[in-house]
Amino acid sequence: MKSNRHPERLSLVTALVMCITMTCLAQPAAADESEELAKKLANPIASLISVPFEYDYDSDIGPSDSGSRWTVTTKPVIPFSLNEDWNLITRTIFAYVNQEDLVPGLGK
Questions:
Q1: Is the pTM of this model over 0.70?
Q2: Strand, helix or coil for residue 85
Q3: 67 touches 92 (CB < 8 A)
Q4: What's the total number of domains in the chain?
Q5: Are residues 76 and 104 in the same domain?
């Protein structure tokens, strides 16, 4: 005799099992993609553009410890393929610095 007391529970369990199965099946593809990306990131001549940003903040600086400074540094790495044998990789550093009240009385 078949019981149909809680068909919604059966549907929920079935959906949950299907989701877990699909997730497990999708993991090798995602692992392959992340492994390939890791290899490209480790290769200095790969054709990947990276633009990392760095933010630094310093407070209580200067002779009276009332100054502050913040710096945003960008270090883009941009590869160019010149031909089949030659690649050009640019690594330029850009920094923007803002400092206030470093020396008392300046700028007022």
A1: no
A2: coil
A3: no
A4: 2
A5: yes
- Say if CB 48 and CB 40 are below 8 A apart: yes
Q: What is the pLDDT of residue 21?
A: 59
Both tokens assigned to 106? 């300046």
Residues 6 or more apart whose CB falls under 8 angstroms from that of 45 comprise 79, 87, 89
* Average pLDDT along the chain: 75
Q: pLDDT digits over 46-84, tens only?
A: 677 888 899 999 888 888 888 888 999 999 888 888 888
Whether 55 and 105 share a structural domain: yes
Q: Contact at 8 Å (CB) between 75 and 91? A: yes
Q: Which domain holds residue 52?
A: 46-108
Phi-psi map region of 31: left, alpha, beta (phi>0 left; psi -120 to 50 alpha): alpha
**For residue 80, what are the β-bridge partners?**
88
In the numeric block, the tokens 């502050």 are attached to 68
